[in-house]
Amino acid sequence: MDDVGAERERGRTAVIKVEGLTKEYGGTRVVDGLDFEVRPGVVTGFLGPNGAGKSTTMRLILGLDRPTAGRALVDGRPYAELDVPLRRVGALLDAHALHGGRTARGHLRWLAASNGLPERRVGEVLDQVGLADAAGRRIRGFSLGMRQRLGVAAALLGDPPVLMLDEPVNGLDPEGIRWIRALLRALAAEGRAVLVSSHLMTEMALTADHLVVIGRGRLLADAATSDVIERHGRTRIRVRAVDPDGLASLMDRSGLDARRVGDGAWEVAGAAPEELAALAAAEGVVLYEIAVQQDSLEEAFLRMTADSVEYRAVAA
Amino acid sequence: MSTATAPATAVPLRAALRAERIKLTTLRSLWVTPLVALLLTVGFGTAVAAVVGTKDDSFAADPGLGIHYGLNFGQAALVCFAVLLLGQEFGTRMIDVSLTAVPHRGRLYGAKLALGAAVALGVGLLGTAGSLAGYAAFVPDGWDGPALARSVVAGALYPVLLVVFCLGLTAVLRNLSAAMGLLLPGVFLLSPLLSGIPGVRGVVQFLPDRAGQYALRYADDPQMAYGHWTGLLVMALWAAAAAYGGLRGLRRHSA
After folding, report:
1. B64 near B152, Cβ under 8 Å?
2. Candidates B5, B11, B85, B107, partner chain A, best to mutate (most A CBs within 10 A)
3. Measuring CA to CA, how many Å separate A78 from each of A32, A66, A271, A291, B10?
4. What is the value of pTM for the model shown?
5. What is the pLDDT of residues B63-100, one digit of tens each?
6. Short-list A219, A202, A221, A199, CA closest to A211
7. Could B93 and A97 be called an inter-chain contact, meaning their C-beta atoms sit closer than 8 Å?
């Protein structure tokens, strides 16, 4: 998946460009000098803990908020200058930002009319998201999952080459999550640029080809998903010996970055497994377990964002 | 990627207007309130003309008061309509969706103002016609005076100016509850009650609803500092100022 994504990504012009984007609210920098690009043909995961500035960044791209500094361009232009914006960008920000008194069809009808889209698109996107049966019902009776689907329908209305979805899996059941995942991948495979934000790292590992990771409004990583895991996920060797005391004394003397993880096991960072085996053999310690452990994306992410909290005075 | 849709052709203000019209017809509270305004205006006007009629000489002294009596009640529904038309978008955060669809804030706001004004003009025309017919049915004499034309024009324009004023103020406040809380008691209670107090009357007569309602009347009021037509102009200035303030607010602030 990552190789295909990387191949598709290569050589394509960015459709969203974020340059030095900064937003302050009452002296607090919510978004702090962000630079990144979103390219067609791939799913770009926009990852960060809650409050990292993901939604604000998306609002800045859509021109809903004004940046304190920097700019965000879609097709080389500010969003507000697009002629028929819904044909260029489909966005889902907040599934609750609807009037509950309208029907799903009513909501999509005014949206279609605002950009001169043909009325038949309303029925098409309702079918596409599986809401055809609920089209005539008032939105206030919708579950969060149904609202998310309606939000996706609204984003797809103009058949846009760029999609921006803020936490679309929120409130979806497992079936809905699978559906979103497949939909995003299919949209990217059609050559569209898909920017999807999430605080769920495992979800992004499954969906995104490329990751833009932010913490406290700053860019922490901007690379292929596999690269992010490789670079920020530490490799550790887990070892256990027949004689735990012997192993403990060896670990103490070795000067390695080792720590006891309980049950007589140790985890060693920054050493190769064969190196450890040789060392143990030389000291007469018999190992019965040597396992190479790769951090999951989740752990990599937690470490990155922990750093962003700890070292927030250091420029990104 | 499918290219089922035709090449992009910008249809800006007309499309924005069409979208606003659909927003209105697809939400009950938005199309019911103008109908209620019409019903209250004609209903109360006719009912009071029927009950009071020629028994009281206050209508004889100023038929304008009698003809437009129902507007005192109808305007409450008009204020609700105007505040809901824009305020609901802020209340539900749907303004975000509206602005992604129509990013040009002046265009979105202009479409709202145009639609609100058009609906209000309909209420004004039908309300005035209905009220006049109802009044004339029970008070056959005196209404066909020289001031009739002005009173009818004012009756058609008063709702328009009131709705534009309320839309503008709602855009300034960008908050449904604040706008409703300020405008409804302001127009319905505060302004009429204050105008009864001699000391503040000189100032209160310049409030938009007081000024606009003076244009509805037939008789001259020696306590008013301006003429009938000027009253409508004063109200128009309020409406224009509110509309401009709202535009500035929408342009300057984050959605």
Report:
1. no
2. B5
3. 19, 11, 49, 51, 16
4. 0.84
5. 999 999 999 999 999 999 999 999 999 999 999 999 99
6. A221
7. yes
